[in-house]
């Protein structure tokens, strides 16, 4: 049974996730940084640093949202970054952000379904995703699509929440995710389900070695897993 934001609705997970992000788009960046105490910014910088040795020139950022990770990827000096997302609300916020920063010539944001990407095979030097693959309706299919559009020898970098397993971080994490985060998220975003869905989706997500196993099943090689901040998030790397 897939974890979905709105349990009283019959729409599939993909539709519900798009609706959820449309609902919270205006508050998403603020809540992201506030609820993580800014640590999410450090995590993104780490993920970019791990991709740096590959010097990718054409990058696809999946589930790009408002474009924060795409903007961070500019530090690699690529020729172009394409950001894809299923939430038009998030993309609208992202485009406004790019316009203000004068970055439209380097980053292009467009609608894109992770399980049916509108790009040719072997197109991108690198494919990235930050806090997005957890929301895929079909994780294996989404990762297979990321593999398909990646050039042979290209690199995939996925940054995603994971579950701490050691005392006391495990207990603190569970308390914060189940009690504090949903309450603050509900008050600020005005969406009752969005920040209840987040901890539920993290709990259901196959993190750590389980995620690497799926990486390998869809065809990625040289897979590695970097645990961050006592296991609260992880970076997963592979090559095609």
UniProtKB/TrEMBL annotation:
A single GO molecular function term of this UniProt record: demethylmenaquinone methyltransferase activity
Gene Ontology terms: biological process: menaquinone biosynthetic process; methylation
Family matches, as PROSITE patterns: SAM_MT_UBIE, UBIE_1, UBIE_2
The keyword S-adenosyl-L-methionine is assigned to this record: yes
General function of this protein: Methyltransferase required for the conversion of demethylmenaquinol (DMKH2) to menaquinol (MKH2).
PANTHER family for the chain: 2-METHOXY-6-POLYPRENYL-1,4-BENZOQUINOL METHYLASE, MITOCHONDRIAL, METHYLTRANSFERASE
Family, similarity comment: Belongs to the class I-like SAM-binding methyltransferase superfamily. MenG/UbiE family.
The protein's name: Demethylmenaquinone methyltransferase
């Amino acid at each position: 049974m897939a974890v979905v934001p709105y349990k009283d609705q019959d729409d599939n997970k993909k539709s519900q996730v798009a609706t959820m992000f449309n609902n919270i788009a205006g508050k998403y960046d603020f809540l992201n940084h506030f609820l993580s105490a800014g640590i999410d910014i450090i995590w993104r910088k780490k993920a970019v640093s791990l991709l740096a040795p590959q010097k990718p020139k054409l990058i696809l950022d999946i589930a790009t949202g408002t474009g924060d990770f795409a903007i961070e990827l500019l530090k690699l000096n690529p020729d172009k970054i394409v950001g894809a997302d299923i939430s038009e609300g998030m993309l609208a916020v992202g485009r406004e952000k790019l316009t203000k920063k004068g970055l439209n010539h380097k980053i292009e944001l467009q609608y894109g379904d992770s399980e049916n990407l509108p790009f040719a095979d072997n197109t991108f030097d690198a494919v990235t995703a930050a806090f997005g693959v957890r929301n895929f309706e079909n994780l294996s299919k989404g990762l297979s699509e990321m593999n398909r559009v990646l050039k042979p020898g290209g690199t995939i970098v996925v940054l995603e929440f994971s579950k701490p397993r050691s005392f006391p971080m495990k207990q603190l994490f569970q308390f914060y995710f189940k009690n504090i985060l949903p309450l603050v998220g509900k008050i600020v975003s005005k969406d009752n389900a969005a920040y209840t869905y987040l901890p539920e989706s993290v709990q259901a997500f196959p993190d750590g070695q389980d995620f690497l196993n799926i990486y390998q099943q869809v065809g990625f090689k040289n897979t590695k897993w970097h645990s961050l901040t006592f296991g609260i998030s992880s970076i997963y790397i592979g090559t095609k």
